[in-house]
Amino acid sequence: MTNEEMWQAVLGEIELTLSKAQFITWFKNTFVHTIEQDCIIVNVPNIFTKEWLENKYKKTLLNSIRKYKPQVNRISCLINTGEKPPKKIDSVADSPMPSVKYPASASPIREIESASIKPNTNFSPAYQQPTTNAPLTHSQIFSNYQESHLNSRYNFDNYVVGSNNELAYAACRAVSDSPGNNYNPLFLYGGVGLGKTHLLQSTGNRILKNHPHFKIKYISTERFANELVDAIQNNQAKEFKNKYIMLDALILDDVQFLSKKEKTQEEFFHIFESLYQLKKQIILSSDRPPKSIPTLEDRLRSRFEGGMMADISKPDLETRIAIINSKLTEKDLELSGEIINYLAENIYHNVRELEGALNKIIAIVQLRNSMPSVDEVAEMTKDVVSSNRKQNMTPKKILDAVADYFNIKTEEISSKGRKRTLVRPRQLAVYMIRSEINLSFPEIGNLIGGRDHSTAIYAYDKMEQELKQNPLMSDAIKIIKDKLIDY
Ligand code: ADP
Ligand code: MG
Q1: Is the CB of 195 under 6 A from ligand 1?
Q2: Cβ pair 456, 440 in contact under 8 A
Q3: Residue 202 contacts by C-beta under 8 Å, 6 or more apart in sequence?
Q4: Ligand 1: which of 156, 169, 189, 198 to mutate, most ligand atoms within 8 Å of CB?
Q5: Which of 355, 313, 361 is nearest to 330 (CA)?
Q6: Do 222 and 286 meet the contact criterion of CB atoms below 8 Å apart?
Q7: pLDDT, tens digit, for every residue of 470-485?
Q8: Tens-place pLDDT, residues 233-260
């Protein structure tokens, strides 16, 4: 078995436990460089992949590699910098999360002014302005910022990173440090109020900080569609398009609203193609992955999936506490630990609601000049307390969510297919239907394509075993469960 064959087999195994977005993000463009004694050296495209493979995925990778190469005990990643020969990066300076701090309160203008103004090496000759290398005047900087429709309230410093959003965060950092180069387009997806807009805006703000010459635009898909309709009515469709293809970076929020808007999809496709050809950065967000956006043209879908996709799920308890504390610090306020815990423990579906509840309490504290009791807090926030929401678990929804996670069709779970790519999701679906809604095994057997109850029991036991050994599988269950809760 050659190293390459071995790597393909290892990736084949790992792919079975990850969502498509995770797999593509971390394992696309990786290959074995060499195996030297007990160390396997893997070529990876960037520092982020290096960090994740050497840390988060190390154990899973080693377990799998050892089946083929028992002598291997260590993984080391080499960053393959495109044209240049692979180069090893070990220094701390290459950390993916540089501790560049700028105060959250800094005005965007001050922020941009204080940034070193670098020539924009990303300009294609056709767009190069004679003034590109000259320092920008304050009014040029201000006008660039205004045109961008960015909001300085959002930045990476006031975004709390947890396991629910670390992939999306890392991707946005990478894009903001090197727009147009690595992850293009960048597609973020996740439920409402989980911080997509915050990340998109932070990315835009940082790109503009690093490249004050850049023409950037942040726009919601609904507004983009409305502007297009106006432009068409006023015979200005061409001007509309020209305005967009001039950009250095386009940030389009909530692209699920492209659904059923044929004309907008068509115009956007051409804008996308022009920008993409010129290596201009495109950043998109959606409340669901591209394949779940109904009536999205195939050509757009495949382009959205062709760059980097990163999902954001619900924050865990620790992250929710950190978010509350970060908002309190920002407002220079304090609340009792009891109240903070109550909020973090009880509002877990949505950061926007958590923030809303927090603001309500802060307002009361300021008004009364005293801390409310936890009972009062419970009363004030009862409409957003998550446990008052109903869980949305039906067998069909579990099947759909599992299929969605593994990027297969729901019917394939109940098909006769015995491929590993189907068997694993099937086992997981059985496990979840049994453990979440306690359906009987004969009923579960029926659901997964009229199989015998013994098959369902076998699948359940297999998954139970697997969960003990494979932490990635528990992560998968957590993510799938998150998606099954009603908003
Ligand atoms: P989405 O676009 O996904 O619906 P938003 O980006 O509008 O969500 O986030 C909703 C609110 O929650 C915003 O005020 C945002 O600043 C805040 N928020 C979300 N996630 C985080 C986070 N990880 N850290 C800090 N604030 C967050
Ligand atoms: Mg949003």
Answers
A1: yes
A2: no
A3: 154, 155, 156, 159, 172, 176
A4: 198
A5: 355
A6: no
A7: 877 887 887 788 777 6
A8: 999 999 999 999 999 999 999 999 998 8
